[in-house]
Specification:
With 323 residues, the protein is of the alpha+beta class. It has 11 helices and 12 strands.
């Protein structure tokens, strides 16, 4: 089993290099958030070609085998490569076939949860096999060709706030990860939430992203060198992503966070040469509204789940009753 895992991972590394695999499913990303031994990958191979892949993170919670989402990972799930010139009806059949082959290889689990990338629109094979699906949303600006048009699609109040923020702060890049962690932590503390990762975890994650040239940290400072806001941007071959943000709660009124979004959008187009900007979404009402006012398109993605353990099923049922 260990030998097959090593073979699959080596094959998957080459697949990641040749295909536009989303950043959250890249082998080096998974090493950083799961540990090199904390994840595995399933492949569908025909002849000498890989046609589908599905990395997964499996952990133990007590006696239970849990497949779930790693920390700071927006999505994972399946990736399917298509034969050339495939007709639409054959495309769906192909997706179903690839999905079945992947999930047939999945090891036994008590609970499964995975957020699929929004490019995955077909989960029928899983429905037929008693998996459940919840629709979540991210917000995406899909066309950055005309930045003036993108800016004009912002809510008028946001354009005004961005203009005012430019008078109060200067935007810089290259923030130290320890300093970013400090201001990122403030955002959680303001909401009375414990930050879900440590500085040590974030340092290792940041090291992997920097090593693979897949991140930049923007921050806004005033003339007294006070840091108002920070934004951690990541990217892959197709899109950039607002990975993390942080704001000083005492300085939020400067709207520096809105300015950083605009600067990150411009950076995505002008420096990275990418055409898609993904806010990495949120189902929180107050956050969703902010994303929408940037003129971003509401984009659905699937959260796929299944529980095999009778004990976990009972616990979930009891939680639903006492809500």
């Amino acid at each position: 089993m260990i030998g097959q895992t090593m073979i699959n991972k080596e094959l998957y590394k080459k697949f990641c290099d040749s295909e536009p695999i989303p950043i959250f499913s890249q082998y080096w990303w998974l090493d950083s958030v799961c540990g090199s031994d904390g994840w595995d990958v399933l492949l569908v191979v025909k002849g000498n070609d890989i046609w589908a892949s599905m990395p997964y993170y499996k952990t133990k919670r007590g006696f239970f085998d849990i497949i779930t989402m790693p920390t700071l990972t927006q999505n994972m799930g399946i990736y399917v490569k298509y034969p050339q010139n495939q007709k639409s009806h054959k495309k769906i059949s192909w997706e179903n076939e690839m999905t079945k082959k992947l999930f047939d290889k999945l090891p036994k689990f008590d609970s499964y949860l995975c957020n699929f990338h929004y490019n995955v629109s077909n989960w029928m094979e899983l429905y037929w096999n008693n998996f459940n699906c919840t629709t979540h949303y991210t917000y995406v600006i899909n066309d950055l060709d005309n930045l003036d048009e993108v800016y004009n699609n912002f809510d008028k109040s946001y354009r005004n706030k961005i203009a005012n923020a430019k008078k109060k702060v200067e935007v810089k890049t290259g923030m130290n990860i320890s300093d970013f962690f400090d201001i990122n932590k403030m955002t959680f503390e303001r909401q009375n939430i414990d930050i879900p990762y440590s500085l040590n975890f974030l340092e290792k994650h940041d090291y992997a992203l920097a090593k693979n040239n897949a991140r930049e940290i923007f921050y806004a400072v005033d003339e007294l060198n006070n840091i108002h806001s920070a934004l951690y941007l990541t990217w892959d071959k197709k899109s950039s992503y607002v990975h993390m943000v942080g704001e000083d709660p005492e300085l939020r009124n400067s709207a520096a966070g809105l300015l950083l979004i605009w600067e990150a959008i411009k950076y995505t187009k002008e420096v990275l040469g990418l055409n898609i900007f993904d806010f990495e979404g949120s189902m929180l009402k107050n956050v969703e509204q902010v994303r929408r006012k940037f003129g971003a398109t509401q984009t659905q993605y699937f959260s796929i789940s299944k529980v095999n353990s009778k004990t976990i099923k009972f616990k979930n049922f009891f939680k639903d009753i006492v809500k």
